[in-house]
Protein 1
Amino acid sequence: MADLTMLPRSPLAGHLPPGRHGRADGAPGVAVTERGDLAAASLALRAGQDAALAIALLDGFGLALPQRAGCTAAGALELVWTGPGQWLALDAGREDVARFGFARALAAQLGGAASVTDLTGARAVLRLSGPAVREMLAKLVPIDLDESVFPPGAAALTLAGHMGVTLWRPPTAEDAWHIACYRSFGESLAHDVLEAAAEFGCEVSATT
Amino acid sequence: MRITCPHCGERGNDEFTVLGAADPVRPAPDAPLEAWVAYVHERENARGVHRELWHHQHGCRTWLVVERDTWTHAVIGVRAARETPA
Amino acid sequence: MNAPQGPVTPARENLASGAAAPTQPWRLKTGGQIDRTRTLSFSFDGKRFAGNPGDTLASALLANGVRLVARSFKYHRPRGILSAGAEEPNALVELHSGARREPNTRATQIELFEGLEARSQNRWPSLALDLGAVNGFFAPLIAAGFYYKTFMWPASFWEKLYEPLIRRAAGLGRAPDGPDPDRYERAHLHCDVLVVGGGAAGLMAALAAGRAGARVLLLEEDVAVGGRLLSEVEEVDGRPGAEWARQVESELATLPRVRILRRTTAFALLDGGVVTALERVADHLPQPPAHLPRQRYWKIVARRVVLAAGAIERPVVFGGNDRPGVMLAGAVRSYVNRFAVLPGARAVVFTAGDDGWRSVADLARAGARIEAVVDARREVPAAQAQLASQLDARLVVGGRVVGTQGGRHLVSVQIANAQGGEEGVGADLLAMAGGWNPSLHLSCHLGGRPRWDEAIHAFVPGDLPAGMGVAGAARGRFSTHTALAEGAREGVAAARDCGFASNGPAIPRAEDAPGDLAPLFHVPRGHGKAFVDFQHDVTDKDVALAHREGFRSVEHLKRYTTLGMATDQGKTANVTGLAVMANITGLGIPGTGTTTHRPPWTPVAIGAIAGPHRGRHFRPARRTPLHRWAAANGASFVEVGPWYRAEWYARPGEAGWRDSVDREALAVRAGVGVCDVSTLGKIEVVGPGAAALLDLVYGNMISTLAVGRVRYGVMLREDGFVMDDGTVARLAPDRFFVTTTTANAGKVMQHMEFCHQVLRPDLDVSLLSVTDAWAQVSIAGPRARDLVAAVIDPAPDISNGALPHMACIEVSVAGVPCRLYRLSFSGELAYELGVPGDYGEAAMQRIMARGAPLGVTPYGTEALGVLRIEKGHPAGGELNGQTTARDIGLGKMVSTKKDCIGRRLAERPALVDPARHVLVGLKPADGRSPIRAGAHLYEIGAQVVTSNGQGYVTSACHSPTLGMPIALALLDRGAERVGQRIRVLDPLRNGDMDAEVCSPVFVDPEGGRTRG
């Protein structure tokens, strides 16, 4: 019997057709890309290990630990606050099954400072940018997105429509907004994003 | 209604779910049945200031003790339930 | 007494066209804020007319001399246009056609667009000849409370006769024919200062707060800012008011933190400074442009609110006050000054004070003949008397209007002088100026009560909700100067409260007349019906009747007469109704009651509230990583909460779903089947305190579970009933993987977080939902081990000895790290394979390919249900919130050696009563009749009364294994009754049969297959 290779399929594969959506004229107000290539893991702080975790992350990965409702980045790595004592760690620098090494590497480095659980493929993640991204997001999430309230480095857990989402702006040079939901909700989130962006014209590019 | 989550900041009440009174304390396992019945079923229907357990279900998932006025709907104070009051 | 009859002709020299030109004969030659360079064509009741950009439907109809625009709700009386704004109770029309048809829209707020189609409502066969007007003859029968009296008897007549008749006669427009084709959006805004209303006060407030640096949002209901400045002949800062407003608007546009939303109505104030508003994005267009919604529902979070919503002029209650041609005096000025329309050629002005005199002056300037000014005050200022004399108008000081005449529009006005003498005056326009009611509604939406202000004979805002300030006419301050000054003051204060200090803008020069006013609400004992609520046809006599019959409280008055309960919510009626009642009670208005204002300020379409959440997108859907695979393989899907689950996989030649389900279930019993169980809730519980937390949460002991083993667990609520069941796998000493039912996943996660954070915050443990991390596939049947061995990478030992029932190991599939749990829900040898989501579809393809020689069969939730019913495993029907662990045969699982949620109250006498129902199996006595879930159980021969009920059927199916229908049921003392017969009664669905009570485990009661 011929062996079958196991090719990964990202959460939004097929749900975000590349190309122009919505208003067709003018420069697109919103650019959308699925981040389908991420390795992901949850970190949960063990009791009393705040300092140890912060040091281990900085030493091992060059990542600062966001204390509350924030995010940090270092190279291909991102760390997003997802609740008291919990973070979502992302690594864009691994592919295919090598992604499962990320949680193992984190666990090895962090020792007993945090519980690490692999979440690769568990979230649908979108990268959003463009001049109308804030106005588009205002149709999805109820939180204040003003620059003074939600600058680069901010993160929030909130509701988009009836879906729980994580929204963050990595403190990096490219001004992009990232939104994640449970994998199973991905198709609904992709639809809602395209609907909300239609007014401004929306350019979808292929999964990075 | 707006609730200020100690972790997430001020949010609309649609991100939260309410459980009920925060003050009843779970009795010891061998406490008399009456104490357990009271804990589970008996509630004051306070008009005025009331402490309630709310869950930031669609946010950081913290259980909160929300002190609010059931008459004016004013939220007086919010703290994480896991943290003992000062 | 009789006034001269006949058509009224416009004063030609001031009008745009002579009598020969049919278009817009009542349009003034100059002035107004309409765009005269373009005309718009529209139709009303099928007749074509022309208007101009800047018109409302109402102003365009008036420009064309159309004064009869509607029939009233109850009496089918001819009605015209009363107002020029949101308060309009008469000129309600139907807009658009087909699926876009919208009833009850206010002609006074509809912006004219090219091709607009409007129709009058509530008339048959036509507006001019309405046979329903015959209702008028029966008017005595349909006075207040007629619903409660006239149609009381006999009861059977109600549905068949009365209700259809009333519905046909008393209509408020027709609903559209098809689903709404337009899009609606919801969106959120946050600001420091929200200014509601863009008139003089609102503009100043926005300017003050905006210049101070605050984030400001200004909402204006109208298409243009300016408020009354657009309608009055008045200067601000030495310029026409409308021009000043435009200049402030352009300055606001340059402030980066100020946003203006026009065509946007703030319709509700909610707790915590939340205001909801409706933006009519495309209602002024024939249809919404592509990619734009028709309307947008804004949820606005504001730290401070400045209410500058202006005021509404109130009608005076006198005989015939509803006749087309009777209009609010302020609306008359709007039509003349803003829309350049003369609403009548021969006018009578009935005023309670100075304000009506503005209409006298403006009408005269526009070329109308002022026939008479009826001023209710005992004396009038000399300047006004002089104006009347200059205009050669009859001045009736201390007079009243006591009646009107005319068929479809006004032809004469009956005036009583101070001594009571009456005379008729020919007129086609009667402007009434009874004073203004502040639009304080938003200040009352949180339960606040307004306060009566004797100086202006109106309610003003009482105690304000936290964070709100009120300015200008909304506060009862009617001079333009005061509005400007108060707006600036409130804007400065609101910005300062948000941390932006400033001195505020200079107050521009403007009119500051005190505005003298006599109280004038009601002219009793006039001629004809005197309306209080125009839209609901409530008259002064109805109010008096309510009083006589004891409905004296304002709330009773309202409900008995339906005063204020129409779609306009009594904007022009409530205060007047109260005044009429106060006259009768003699208690004065504050002693009689206050009005209550509830959201919404103006009607809001359900579609706008739903926003994008409709149809398929009513709520977000959850799909498993195997969804696409299942759809490609013939699955039909069932919604389980937000999830879509494959319910069966139809194959060609199968006659119906039962064929598919039977085939799938038998394949599992005979060979091997695969089922997508990814929707089960999955929680990872990690940390040194994990075992202790799970011991608290589950009835059974979890801490004794060995690493690499799985335990079935039952979870109670604190009241002792079962909450959920599932499995717990121990992956490491400090790491557990917990599954829940699909339906309860969210509830269980929340409950476990409660147990941790509230009850045991001392435990060092974290909880993480990993439901979406795994594509979980159940592989079940006698050939399951062969299939698993063919799918996973070599070479873990999965023999029965190495991986027995209720054990788990880590495996890999094509190099992808996976988890393999040996678990059975079907009663067969079975596994669950957990595959990371990205690889779920590929893994399923591999399973199907490698399982082909074994005859692998995908099965759906229906077959899953059949298999579990055959095994007597409890699921949704049994975990119904009314069962204890003992009831469903899990009593032994609740440990008595430790504390757990629900243990203590599960010991309550009623919950351990041996007479309680327990889970049993049922087989039809005839071996073939299907049993239905929900049917009730009775002793054969017992009387069918509730107290004789013995239990009910919780789950039922056809068992392909047994070849007969089977069921699970909760039966009182069921364990003792195995072998007995019981009556299964389902009266709602005509079911009545006998069944044999048996063990709930129909297949393999010894469990040998599972452990093999």
Protein 2
Amino acid sequence: MSSSKKASVGRRNFLKGTAGGAAALLAASHRAPAQSVEPVRSASAAVATQEHDPSPVVETLTADRPGADFMLDVLKAIGFDYVFANPGSSFRGLHESVVNYGGNKSPEFITCCHEESSVAMAHGYSKIEGKPVCVFAHGTVGLQHASMAVYNAYVDRAPVFMVIGNTVDAATRRPGVEWAHSVQDAGVLVRDFTKWDDMPVSLQHFAESAVRAYKIAMTPPTMPVLLVADGDLQETPVRPGEHLHIPKITLASPPQGDSGAVAETARLLVAAENPVIIADRCARTPAGLKLLVDLAETLQAPVINQYGRMNFPSAHRLNQTERARTLISNADVILGLEVWDFWGTVNNFRDQLQRTSRPITKAGAKFISISATDLNTKSNYQDFQRLPDLDLSMAADAEATLPALIEACKRLLTVDRKNAFEDRAKKLAEAQHEARGRMLTEASYAWDASPISTARLAMEVWAQVKEKDWSLVSNNAWPQRLWTFDKHYQYIGGAGGAGVGYGAPAALGAAIANKKYGRLSVSIQNDGDLMYAPGVLWTSAHHGIPLLSVMHNNRAYHQEVMHLQRMANRHQRGINTAEIGTTIKNPNIDYAAMARSMGVHGEGPITDPNDLGPALKRALDVVSNGEPALVDVVTQPR
Amino acid sequence: MRILLITILASLLLAAQTPGNAKNGRKLFENYGCYQCHGREAQGGLGTGPRLGPKPIAFTAVQRYVRQPTGQMPPYTAKVVSDQDLADIYAFLQSAKQPPAVKDIPLLNN
């Protein structure tokens, strides 16, 4: 908190104090030759100097304790491990405080090549670590770049903490670029898809709003928040004797479901003959996975994982994800835990010229939802999905509600119900075994094909990583089916808003979170996605982040190929033109060379499946030494 | 009505008997975008389309579904895919290789 007397004259006050001479100074400047190097001052310049810098007072040019130092004290108190940022002048004060005053530790500055990458990295990080990192960005151009990644995190209900630079006071802005980089209301750009934002006008205001923002971001439903760090506030010294207080950081307990609704849910579940538990973004913390296992085993009820989070062990006998359609069709009670699209789960929708839908559930089936999303729904962006016909709806955090629900179920158990549950468990175990056999048979088709099948790719990677402490930091279908997941950090879910360009940076952010635990981070990386943000390769090399990226290189934005095909077929024309504008060919991209150009070990393109295992092994040797590696694999479409 | 049914049946049988060219069928399978959902070897795609070969379902069933799909598949009408094209594609599906048994693939037995 120490500061020198010189620091008592702030940038803002200093400029205010000299405002009387500003007109003369400006006039003098305009009269002066633009390229003058005249060593002798002109008369007008001398007058201006006299008015601007009256002798004998010496202009204060340095500060011992800029406001940004206190801002960093606040960020340190909150406990951020990292700042993810592409550098920007509007937060130069904060940047300098991080690297010098803070010693570039806790938080450490991670250099990103694009603000969208910064936020997507933060998104991926939060899903491993369960808390946000801090993202710095320009309040204008940086936030504009970042906005799509903010939207992804919002839809995915993931906490991201953004601090953006801006200079509100027009009288203190540097002419030119700083005006283009300033905005009246910075937060409005993303207000539709952030949970809270503020524009503090004092350091104390910054401290309180930063702690408040963190608390809001971390209270389910967790979401991105944004704080403006005013440029003047960053660079103006702290006033001597100014009492600044960092509020105590006390997170809110997550909201639990109403006790009556919990009791009724337990009654329905225990009485049900064919209950089904559907989990999407249920396991918010490592405890969530264990709680869901406890609930499922208490009821011997099947669990369908919709993969929003690492909800349930993949090999558990009650994991019946492969049989989702059959089980949902036969269910008498369906419990949705943080299910993003309940309506879409219990209805079939056909994307034909006439869009039609029909329920896939039995008449009279009871639908119960526990979701924190109901606590915070906004109007403009339509990510809230179609409204399902629920019988019970708890606006509450599912994970926080599970302990009470488990206890309520256990209290209702009778010998008869336990016996019925055991019978159900045996049938489910048999069905799961058969489903596993079908999956393996499916995986065997096109096993030796070139381009390489995605099942083959998944199993070649699995063979290399399964004995290690691994974490899959991407969202891929075959690993979900064939690998054995049983730890919370082994899977991070998807983008949320399905905005392309999330995958590569989110994988890197998750890998940064995994690094301190010594985990092996593996990403099966889509080619189109990587091309949105290839700079993350450089970031991974620069900061020495161990991450194995295995390209799922189908040389297309494949989802869009299929959409275009659908349109052509519907219109009965040009059914052979769907690759125009949707593929990434001619020339084919050499991802291995691209990786090498940024300091990342790169191999490929690999087209022969027999070459894949050895290439992965070599890449893993690099990753084991703490460095990133990429293996480019030319694959089947899906 | 009876005559109509016989006519339809006859045409289906005729179509079923149309000899197909597997080599051209593979080309058409790519060009017409079948591979997008079903994989380049017709092995199926996760969440996009089922496996079609080897040992495809009966040609008449394939033809009926392709022309008037009841699920998510976009329609391939006779205007854009002729019966002969379909027969060629079907020949390709029939020619698809049977994979090794799961028990013979070490990576699937881990």
